[in-house]
């Protein structure tokens, strides 16, 4: 096992009707004036917003709210939320929803604690790493991003369409209320995207140059096997509590760093996906599966044995004449699984069709910050590599 530091301070309150413990959790975290952050119609129609308001009213906890968070959350709404939190005198931010609501809440919490500093220009563009934030809590309704226990938050700039994220310990929520029954009304495409997102958070850690972390690998492989088994069950019956609960917990573990302890994470696929989400407003999970297979084929030769292990430990694959053949088989098994849950695996199935070379070049420029960065560690990829991977997926 290699050296590592593990910090996961989020209190998880898991199970049926766990949202009934909201007021106690807010007080435990030191909150008394709460800004609610949520999406829109689904949380309202389900009655969750009204139930949350009643919990707070009954407990005498003051609150204000900002709704309208959309997938691929926008900077403009986060900025509005910062001002609302300041005007209200909020000392706590409560996200109700999935990754987009949680990431927006995290951004608001940072901005409200850093008056005079624009969240995008100062923090999201990397001038400073945030060191303070209002405490954040979560009522989770979508098993996907793992933001309820992670240190990351992602926003999209409304005008440039640049999608960017930050990683900072102040991002980690104080608590996460996780009731699997709150996912029962999700559309099937959100379940599929969530399954993909959970798997990608693990895969982008699993493909590492740091080998010899046996227990970490075993956690990652068990999580992948569980999601591959339970994801289709949840799609067939969204109200199956067992599958919904397994998927929900896998989502949190996939992004609280446990599946990558001791290793150097790659996250090339996440970076390749961001221009697709930013420019085309593609769902995060869909953008990830669109490029994963071609990224894998492109970088496979850096260490075919890692893909061989994936095939053996996750899919139960047998032996092959060469490691390269076994690696390709593992890649195809993963791609076929994505297809089986109706996830895209190229530009056409994503819905953008075969695009021009000019667009491919623009995507590579966006991903590389105009040749300003190289991403990944399993095999570092530069702007020209990004272009080649996008070109492979352009079918």
Architecture overview:
Helix content is 51%, strand content 10%. It contains 16 helices and 8 strands. Helix 8 (214-236) crosses helix 12 (304-315). The protein is globular and about 70 Å long. The termini are far apart.
Overview in brief:
The chain has 395 residues and is an alpha/beta fold.
Write the layout of secondary structure elements.
Blueprint: E1 11-14, H1 22-28, E2 33-38, H2 41-45, H3 48-59, E3 62-66, H4 75-88, E4 92-97, H5 99-112, H6 119-124, E5 136-140, E6 152-156, E7 163-167, E8 175-178, H7 188-206, H8 214-236, H9 241-255, H10 268-280, H11 284-299, H12 304-315, H13 323-340, H14 347-350, H15 357-368, H16 383-393
Parallel strand pairs: 1-8, 2-3, 2-4, 4-5, 5-8
Antiparallel strand pairs: 6-7
Helix pairs in contact: 4-5, 7-8, 7-9, 7-11, 8-9, 8-12, 10-11, 10-15, 11-13, 11-16, 12-13, 15-16
Key attributes of the depicted protein:
395 residues, 6-stranded parallel beta sheet, alpha/beta, 16 helices, 51% helix, two-stranded antiparallel sheet
**What coarse outline follows from CA principal-axis ratios?**
globular
Overall average residue pLDDT: 97
Q: Provide the gyration radius in Å.
A: 20 Å
Order of helices and strands: EHEHHEHEHHEEEEHHHHHHHHHH
Structural category:
alpha/beta
């Amino acid at each position: 096992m290699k050296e590592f530091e593990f910090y996961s301070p989020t209190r998880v309150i898991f199970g049926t009707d766990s949202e009934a413990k909201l007021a106690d959790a807010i007080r435990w975290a030191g909150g008394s004036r709460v800004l609610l952050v949520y999406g829109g119609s689904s949380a309202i129609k389900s009655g969750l917003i009204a139930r949350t308001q009643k919990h707070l009213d009954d407990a005498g906890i003051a609150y204000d709210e900002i709704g309208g968070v959309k997938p691929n959350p926008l900077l403009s709404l986060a900025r509005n939320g910062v001002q609302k939190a300041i005007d209200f005198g909020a000392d706590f931010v409560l996200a109700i929803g999935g990754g987009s609501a949680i990431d927006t809440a995290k951004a608001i919490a940072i901005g409200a604690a850093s008056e005079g500093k624009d969240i995008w220009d100062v923090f999201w563009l990397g001038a400073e790493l945030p060191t303070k934030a209002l405490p954040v809590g979560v009522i989770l309704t979508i098993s996907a991003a793992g933001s309820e226990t992670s240190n990351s938050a992602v926003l999209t700039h409304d005008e440039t369409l640049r999608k960017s994220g930050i990683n900072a310990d102040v991002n980690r929520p104080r608590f996460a209320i996780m009731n699997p029954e709150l996912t029962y009304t999700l559309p099937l495409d959100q379940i599929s995207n969530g399954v993909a997102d959970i798997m990608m958070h693990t895969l982008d850690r699993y493909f590492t140059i740091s080998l010899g972390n046996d227990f970490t690998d075993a956690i990652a492989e068990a999580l992948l096997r569980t999601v591959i088994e339970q994801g289709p069950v949840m799609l067939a019956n969204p109200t199956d509590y067992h599958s919904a609960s397994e998927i929900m917990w896998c989502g949190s573990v996939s992004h609280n760093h446990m599946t990558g302890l001791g290793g150097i994470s790659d996250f090339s696929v996440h970076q390749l996906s961001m221009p697709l989400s930013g420019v085309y407003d593609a769902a995060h999970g869909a953008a990830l599966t669109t490029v994963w297979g071609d990224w894998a084929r492109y970088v496979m030769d850096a260490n075919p044995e890692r893909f061989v292990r994936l095939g053996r430990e996750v899919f139960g694959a047998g032996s092959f004449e060469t490691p390269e053949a076994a690696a390709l088989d593992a890649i195809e098994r993963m791609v076929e699984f994505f297809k089986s849950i109706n996830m895209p695996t190229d530009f056409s199935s994503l819905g953008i069709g075969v695009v021009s070379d000019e667009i491919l070049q623009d995507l590579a420029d966006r991903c590389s910050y105009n040749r300003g960065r190289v991403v990944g560690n399993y095999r570092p990829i530069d702007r020209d590599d990004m272009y080649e991977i996008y070109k492979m997926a352009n079918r």
